[in-house]
UniProtKB/TrEMBL annotation, chain A:
GO terms for molecular function: ATP binding; ATP hydrolysis activity. Keywords: ATP-binding, Nodulation, Nucleotide-binding, Transport. It comes from Candidatus Geothrix skivensis. The keyword ATP-binding applies. This is ABC transporter ATP-binding protein. Residues 2-242 form the ABC transporter domain.
UniProtKB/TrEMBL annotation, chain B:
This is ABC transporter permease. Coiled coil: none annotated. Residues 19-383 form the ABC-2 type transporter transmembrane domain. It comes from Candidatus Geothrix skivensis. It is found in: Membrane.
Amino acid sequence: MIMLNEVHKSFTVKDRKTRTTKRIDAVRGISLTVKPGEIYGLLGPNGAGKSTTLRMIAGLMDPDAGQIDVCGFDTRKNPESVRGCMGYLSTDMGVYTRFTPRELLRLFGEFQDVDPSTAERRGLHLLDKLQLADFADVKMEGFSSGQKQKVSIARALLHDPKVVIFDEPTTGLDVLTAKTVLDLLRIMREEGRTVIVSTHVMPMVEDICDRVGIIFDGKLHGDAPPRDLLQSRRAKTLDEVFFQLAAESEGGN
Amino acid sequence: MRGALLIAKKEFLELSKDKKTMFLAFVLPFLLYPAIFGMMAKMGRRDEAQNRNKASRVFVSDPSGVMAGLLASDAKHFDLVQKPEGDLKQAIRDQKLELALDVEPKAAESLQKHETFAVTVTMDESERASEVALKRLKTALATQEKSWVQARLQVLGASAQLAEPLKLTVKNAADVGLEVGKALGRFLPYLLMIMMYTGSMQHGIYATAGEKERHTLLSLMATRLPRNQIILGKLLYIFCMGVIAALLNLLSMGISVAFIGGGTGSSMQALAAIANPMTLGLTFLIMVPLGLFFSNFILLMGIQARNTIEAGSAITPGIFLVVFLGVFAMAPGVDKMAFLSYVPVVNVCLALRKLFSQQFSWIEYLIAFTMTVGLAGLMTLVSTRILNQEKALFKM
């Protein structure tokens, strides 16, 4: 279970031209709840505040105000417990290319308190699902970005997390592998895990997400199932909803 | 602490996968120093043998023949040559000859009248062969001069001892161990510091800013490991690499000097005298906080940097500071300045210098050790605090 209540986050950036500091409100009062067995799609343009929201949910950043509970733990008070029950994947994440996938998964198993043999067994099972088992003992230096992404997915799910946060999970993947990842997400839903996915691929959201939230300028708009969102906005696709909200947001500004 | 050890394990495992870096860090010192010292020793020996066996080429302008005869009689050491064409100084600079002697024309007459005559020697102080030639000339003249003085005293009916009021005998109070220890005490702290710093520098950059650049730091932070354990694990790795680099380099240097550079019984005896368990133990003990101090600095600079270039620019100036402090602590008389016992880093150099010079003071050692431990602890506290901040970790 993920619960966000009136979460705020701002950053201070330096303007090199004017030599002044500027405050950017990345997240402005976001509240949402994602239940077990549910896939929540987080949409929004670049710089809207998606990654910051996901990082705060993952306990990697602290909110300035508001509260976030993941698996019943407050992210500010128990960040390690939050990260222990959660699998986090982001496009910003690289893999240690000097290792083979098997070595990497064993090591991350230890980091997540999973004994090495279990980590290896689970890791190989995940690699098999992601069609990468044949490369388990190959150094990752020559891997394509898609292969690296698959290893990252296996790393994020290695410790059997109750909550899964995937930031752009299909980036760099071919159509077939992207489908495998989506199937994996569906299985996770069936297994009763809580899943948040951030993406730009609208058909994917319509296909697998139970509910959708769209972030513009740090605010959450339209927190509802995709079909309800389309009906309320009288739109045929989520792309249309997206453009409508973008126009409203610009008008508001 | 388990998390920190796991992170350090990850760093070492990663290092073990890079054969080139492994070779440079662990094998190269054992090839480099024997090669350097071996080559230096061979060249030195060859030069020495050449100078010893080859007669010095000397041009003598001596119309009365007083000096020319003297040098000609010692063909083993002197080869009298004709006056070279052109400028005499240039000929010496061009190494066509080693010395030129200009003896006063009336030298023989002056000698007979028991008067002084002048000899002007032209040589090239920048050339070893010219120096050797001058030394040989001085030795030859000293013996001849003594016999001339004795002859003059005999004519006057005076005792030969008149020209020799005292006979100086020099006895060396220091043994070989002390001599080597004093020399080593000056250089060792400098070498230790520079090797620890440079040895951990590249590994520190790779493990900090390098992780940011490769986008792998976030995957570590997304695990259940506490952030301060990640930082401490990296610190442990950087520290270990610094200490390992310093120890391997010094070991290789020591072996090279003892077996290749000198290889004589006295050099082995000297090495045995300073390589006692207490000296080595106290040296290693004080290296720990000093290494931690350096590692903390590298970690702090590295993890706050956006990329490896930025980290390198921030960490490299530290080398100059380390060199400056090391060279300062080597200077003569510095070990007599009591207040320096309270100056961080310098006091470690001085404590080690005294340890090897057999002037060891427990109080000075303990002050240096305690201060360095305190400083390293403070640095660790500051770096974990600073590096726990989001802006340090997410600075991309």
